[in-house]
User: Which sequence fits this backbone?
């Protein structure tokens, strides 16, 4: 992880959803949380692609559970926030906050 | 069953997802589907949601994440494949768009081939392959009695014999009987005649089904003395007459003016339970005749008992019964038929398999045509391919592109074919032909879709594989340097094309011979002498309920018939009207054993003859001429109104069998294999094809109606003008005599004749259509290959012309080149047709499978059509200007 590497918007949303779920969640809960909070329709494939990428970056870790009947006899892959992930999330927030500092919403009036 | 997501979507997703996501994503979808989406959106909404998730999930997981593989994360299997496939898809789509003419022709060809296969398969599936509606149907058999000495192997058991067999059998879990019949549904505004069958109490258990509502008959409801006033409604009857109202159960309906309690509603099974509208218990009647062979008997074998094990036991029981009751049961044995026979008779079976074979051939021809087109296309794109090869594309990659192209085409072709099939199936259901049993059940289902998919894959493989294999082995840099002429179409490719054309012609010829044989059969059938005249004849039926006392019934029926027919016969537009006990052209029939009463009674002197009870004037009404003697009259009666001997009329065929060369008038004939039942022949009438036009004329005995008490009564009226105009008068006249009797099955005899040919007509039209398409495809192949070869040999022909070849010479040279593969294909096709047409012998009428006229005419048609398709490119060759052709180089 190089310095100055920032999280993309969707990555932030996915991680925030995971944090809101108590730092532990799986594809379905993350997807539903995203949809419910952001009001944006998200496909399960997109969620997994991002979770996967975040795991590859070391921000998340995952483990696969036992098969469950309600899942058609398939296991659940649970994702947990890693400290690195929380740091990256906080840094993204800090950068955004700094950028927002001094910008008034009225400046955004595009009408 | 647990609700789950669409299985097809699951399977597709399972294949497309990368390994690392598969389990988790599918599990998540399954969980969300069940926990949230299904309750929130309902079944249809949930399925839509699932498919949408599928569509939107494949893209990012497969493709968008792929570049991430460059990231530190591990590289995963499958990413590269998808990228390559995608680029192949794009490439193929682009190149297909560039040649819209080619694409369109290919799509139409595929749609025809795949559509025809899908449509016929959907019929084959629902008629022959669909799972039985009964659990463990292999344990169900139908039980027939036999009299092997007389050549009878499928006799319906009589009621007393059934009850005795039922008591003596150990091998069956259940034995049950069915007796067809009808009843007048009264109590409504108008009386209605409905099909009312009787079944023994264990009938449903034998099939292994239960009422969907209410209860089955109780075990004692078919016992001797039970009142039988309970009824089960068929699913259809319940829906149409009660609007699917569950409260119908417990209510009552009036059958023949007797109130019956509705105890249950039956499931839909497409077979037995659709044969009647209502079912009453078959109450055991100790007085029923043992000689009245009328029941359909079915049995469910005990677990672990095969029909081979059960047969000896039933045989032994039958032998006992034969010894006990020799007058009715002499020589009786038992025969089992598996339940699978209920699907379709052997004629329908043969017809469907022949049609399936025909569309299979059609598809093969389409594939050969496509392979040819693709081959030509690949050849003309050698340069392009060579460029790809020079830039480093491997042979596999290039072949992959060609295969991708045919896969796209096959996919689109399959979709178009499916639409075509869908339309065809709807048309079929609308026509509601009698050629297909249970035509309403035919439809597109998962199996049919799977079949279409399979056919699509086969089409893609067959049409794409050959050109793909033909891709150059090396980069062929020479292609890039030289002009195209040098390497285009090597000799081996030429030969390959000719082999393909030959194969097409051979296949088309086989189909054409099949169609030709069927057309000839149909023509023969239309020239058949029916014996009777169908035009201007109205037929209808009236069901007169049996009175409790037989004598009363007989008298009442005689009065009714005399009054009703008297009224009709006095109407000005009626030429003559009469009643008969069995409708003409009904496929089933009533028959009996007869013999010359003056001769000895030996096994070999017994003749099986159809019998009909008729009122005076029936023969005239049907247009049959009396050859000798007189017609029956009002004084000719049957028992109990008159003791034998009775006056009877015999058909010419029966007379010739019993008294060859002699005079039958005044001869005595023993009827119903019963020496007490004797008839005196008073007349001989010409033969008629009573059982259907394809059956040989029957030996028949016509007996008096009065006294026989036969009901329902079938009427035939010969009118002076349009018979349909008589219908209102028939109704009012009947209502005047008895307001509760309904008229049913009103039809024109013309229609009955047409109906009896409908199945054959249907098969013939389909075969003809398929073979015409096959012919056109094969001709397109012949034309295409020759046209291609002419355009490629422009300069060679130019040289010939320059060296002094006359136009005729060029013409015949080119045509000869085109016709050689055609003629070879025809020879192979003729041999193939000779072998294969044997399989359709059962579908032919009046022609043999090796009918020379058919073979010769089909060969001539095909050869002349092929010459015409060769002529067009040959003309082009003649017009080649040698100077221009040579300058082209």
Assistant:
């Amino acid at each position: 992880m190089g310095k100055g590497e920032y999280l993309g918007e969707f990555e932030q949303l996915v991680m925030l959803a995971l944090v809101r779920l108590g730092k532990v969640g799986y594809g379905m809960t993350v997807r539903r949380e995203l949809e419910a909070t952001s009001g944006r329709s998200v496909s399960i494939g997109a969620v997994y692609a991002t979770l996967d990428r975040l795991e590859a970056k070391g921000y998340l870790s995952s483990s696969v559970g036992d098969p469950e009947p309600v899942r058609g006899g398939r296991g659940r892959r649970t994702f947990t926030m890693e400290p690195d992930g929380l740091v990256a999330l906080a840094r993204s927030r800090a950068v955004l906050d700094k950028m927002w500092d001094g910008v008034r919403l009225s400046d955004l009036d595009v009408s | 069953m647990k609700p789950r997501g669409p299985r097809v979507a699951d399977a597709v997703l399972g294949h497309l997802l990368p390994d690392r996501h598969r389990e988790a994503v599918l599990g998540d979808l399954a969980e969300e589907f069940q926990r949230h989406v299904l309750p929130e959106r309902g079944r249809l909404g949930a399925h839509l949601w699932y498919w949408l998730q599928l569509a939107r999930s494949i893209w990012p997981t497969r493709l968008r994440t792929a570049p991430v593989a460059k990231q530190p994360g591990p590289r995963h299997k499958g990413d590269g494949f998808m990228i390559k496939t995608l680029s192949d898809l794009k490439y193929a789509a682009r190149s297909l768009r560039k040649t819209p003419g080619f694409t369109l022709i290919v799509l139409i060809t595929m749609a025809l081939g795949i559509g025809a296969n899908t449509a016929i398969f959907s019929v084959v599936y629902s008629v022959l392959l669909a799972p039985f509606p009964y659990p463990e149907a292999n344990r169900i058999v139908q039980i027939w009695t036999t009299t092997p000495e007389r050549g009878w192997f499928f006799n319906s058991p009589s009621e007393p014999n059934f009850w005795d067999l039922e008591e003596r059998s150990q091998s069956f879990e259940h034995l049950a009987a069915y007796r067809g019949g009808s009843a007048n549904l009264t109590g409504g505004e108008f009386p209605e005649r409905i099909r009312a069958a009787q079944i023994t109490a264990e009938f449903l258990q034998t099939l292994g089904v239960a009422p969907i509502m209410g209860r089955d008959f109780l075990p004692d409801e078919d016992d001797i003395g039970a009142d039988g006033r309970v009824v089960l409604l068929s699913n259809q009857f319940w829906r149409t007459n009660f609007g699917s109202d569950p409260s119908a159960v417990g209510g009552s309906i009036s059958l023949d003016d007797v109130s019956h309690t509705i105890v249950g509603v039956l499931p839909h099974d497409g077979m037995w339970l659709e044969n009647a509208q209502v079912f009453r218990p078959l109450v055991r009647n100790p007085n029923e005749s043992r000689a009245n062979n009328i029941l359909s008997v079915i049995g469910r074998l005990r677990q672990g008992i095969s029909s081979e094990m059960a047969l000896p036991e039933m045989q032994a029981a039958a032998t006992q019964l034969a010894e006990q009751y020799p007058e009715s049961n002499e020589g009786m044995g038992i025969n089992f038929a598996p339940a699978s026979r209920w699907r379709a008779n052997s004629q329908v079976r043969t017809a469907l398999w022949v049609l399936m074979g025909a569309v299979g051939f059609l598809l093969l021809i389409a594939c050969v045509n496509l392979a040819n087109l693709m081959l030509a296309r690949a050849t003309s794109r050698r340069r392009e391919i060579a460029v790809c090869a020079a830039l480093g594309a491997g042979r596999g990659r290039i072949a992959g592109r060609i295969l991708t192209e045919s896969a796209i085409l096959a996919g689109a072709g399959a979709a178009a074919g499916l639409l075509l099939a869908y339309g065809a199936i709807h048309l079929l259901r609308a026509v509601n032909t009698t050629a297909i049993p249970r035509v309403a059940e035919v439809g597109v289902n998962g199996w049919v879709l799977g079949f279409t998919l399979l056919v699509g894959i086969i089409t893609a493989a067959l049409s794409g594989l050959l050109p793909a294999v033909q891709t150059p082995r090396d980069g062929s840099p020479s292609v890039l340097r030289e002009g195209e002429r040098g390497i285009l179409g090597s000799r081996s490719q030429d030969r390959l094309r000719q082999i393909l054309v030959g194969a097409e012609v051979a296949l088309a010829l086989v189909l054409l011979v099949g169609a030709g044989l069927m057309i000839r059969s149909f023509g023969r059938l239309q020239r058949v002498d029916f014996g009777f005249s169908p035009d201007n004849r109205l037929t209808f039926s009236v069901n007169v309920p049996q009175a409790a006392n037989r004598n009363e019934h007989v008298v009442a029926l005689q009065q009714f018939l005399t009054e009703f027919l008297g009224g009709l016969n006095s109407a000005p537009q009626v030429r003559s009207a009469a009643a008969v006990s069995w409708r003409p052209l009904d496929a089933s029939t009533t028959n009996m054993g007869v013999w010359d009463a003056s001769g000895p009674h030996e096994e070999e002197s017994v003749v099986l003859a159809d019998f009909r009870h008729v009122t005076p004037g029936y023969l005239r009404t049907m247009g049959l001429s009396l050859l000798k003697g007189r017609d029956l009259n009002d004084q000719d009666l049957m028992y109990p109104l008159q003791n034998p001997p009775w006056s009877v009329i015999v058909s010419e065929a029966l007379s010739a069998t019993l008294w060859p060369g002699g005079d039958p008038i005044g001869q005595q004939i023993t009827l119903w294999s019963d020496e007490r039942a004797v008839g005196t022949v008073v007349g001989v009438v010409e033969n008629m094809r009573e059982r259907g036009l394809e059956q040989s004329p029957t030996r028949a005995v016509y007996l008096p109606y009065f006294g026989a008490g036969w009901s329902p009564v079938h009427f035939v009226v010969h009118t002076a003008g349009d018979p349909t105009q008589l219908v209102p008068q028939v109704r009012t006249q009947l209502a005047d005599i008895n307001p509760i009797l309904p008229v049913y099955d009103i039809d024109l005899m013309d229609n009955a004749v047409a109906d009896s040919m409908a199945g054959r007509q249907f098969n013939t039209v389909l075969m003809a259509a398929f073979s015409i398409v096959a012919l056109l495809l094969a001709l397109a192949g012949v034309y295409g290959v020759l046209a291609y070869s002419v355009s490629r040999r422009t300069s060679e022909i130019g040289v010939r012309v320059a060296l002094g070849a006359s136009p005729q010479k060029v013409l015949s040279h080119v045509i000869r080149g085109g016709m050689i593969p055609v003629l070879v294909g025809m020879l192979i096709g003729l041999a193939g047709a000779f072998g294969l047409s044997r399989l359709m012998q059962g579908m032919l009428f009046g022609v043999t499978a090796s009918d020379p006229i058919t073979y010769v005419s089909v060969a001539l048609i095909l050869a002349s059509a092929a010459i015409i398709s060769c002529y067009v490119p040959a003309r082009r060759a003649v017009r080649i200007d040698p100077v221009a052709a040579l300058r082209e180089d």
User: Anything to note?
Assistant: Chain A has four helices and three strands. The beta strands of chain A are 24-26, 60-64, 77-81.
